[in-house]
Amino acid sequence: MYTSRWGRGKVDKTELSGSKNEKRDLARTIEVLFEISDAVTRTRNLNELYGEIHQSLDKILNVNNFLIAIFHEEKDSISFPYHVDEKDDLPDEIFHFSETMSLTGKVIQARKPLIFYEQDLIDFSRKGNRDIIGAISKIWLGAPLIIKDRVIGAMVIQDYHSATVYQRQDLELLNSVSQHVALAIERKAAEKEIYERERLQGVLEMAGTICHEINQPLQAILGYAELMLMNSETDKIHQNLQSIKSQATRLGEITKKLSNITHYKTVDYPGNTKIIDIWGAGKDNK
User: Fold this and answer.
1) pLDDT one-digit tens code per residue, 135-171
2) Residue 133 has pLDDT above 70, yes or no
3) pTM of the entire predicted model
4) Contact at 8 Å (CB) between 97 and 172?
């Protein structure tokens, strides 16, 4: 797949799928749009949603080679969370996106659907004075994913076998569907954000409860240790009391850290489990 260099996995569909003109009627298109909208509630995460979108689009378009690219404006990068391709593999996230030449980038920057043929791809590569990366498709179509005048990415289909697999009206169809896909992605992303916020709130409440329950007996231990240190009779007892005080003070630092958590991350722990990274969480560490 030319220039965008994607690939979650290769498919073994080497035969030409043929035209899907018979599938491009209005009723079937509306059915697909309803399926995409319904998939937001049926899927558990964005990855599942992307798969459902791909499966639905296959009813009206040739999507043997299909990808969804997401634009991260704050990082000036694009990533490829979903992709199926006959020939190429998925690249890493592309940074310095605004300075990188790619067909997907042209769609995002133009904010409109674009279609390219084999010779266009060759000319595009020569113009940029760069080698062609990956296989050259016979025809390439891309449509921007736009939400409230904000471009969040692009949706791309292409074919390596024939330039006649798609027609000009397919670009309009892809663009129409992309608007619904963008809304579906936004809704699913919002669900994830709400889930993460609720999950964080649960962690904060638990941390507050732990701090409250531990601090009271902890202060008592520190107080008793101080009194006993003042009257310790031997060096050995004094040393042991200092150890008690040191560990109690450390426990106090942990509860203080817990009370300052505003976000968190997890780390691997023996037993194939994960625990909250207390020292990597808090107000100042992201």
Assistant:
1) 789 999 999 999 888 899 999 999 999 999 998 889 9
2) no
3) 0.62
4) no
Q: C-alpha dihedral over 32, 33, 34, 35, to 10 degrees? A: 50
**Pairwise CA distance, residues 274 & 255, whole Å:** 20
Residues in the chain: 286
DSSP single-letter state for residue 137: P
**Residue 214: closest CA among 275, 148, 258, 160:** 258
**Residue pLDDT, tens place only, 165-209:** 998 889 988 998 888 888 888 887 777 776 677 676 776 777 777
SS3 at position 95: strand
Residue 217 confidence class, pLDDT cut points 50, 70, 90: confident
What b/e sequence results for 157-171 when a residue is b if at least 16 CB atoms lie within 10 Å of its CB, and e otherwise? bbbbbeeebbeeebb
Q: Is the pLDDT of residue 15 over 60?
A: no
Q: What is the DSSP letter of 184?
A: H
Q: Is the dihedral of CA 73, 74, 76, 80 positive or negative?
A: negative
Q: What is the dihedral of CA 69, 140, 61, 53, to 10 degrees?
A: 0
- Domains in the chain (CATH in brackets) are 21-193 (3.30.450.40), 196-280 (1.10.287)
Residue 160 DSSP SS3: coil
Half-sphere exposure (Cβ direction) of 89: Cα atoms closer than 13 Å: 2
The Cβ of residue 153 has, within 10 Å, a number of other Cβ atoms equal to: 26
R_g of the chain computed on alpha carbons: 28
Question: Is the pLDDT score of 271 beyond 60?
Answer: yes
Tokens found for residue 175: 């663009």
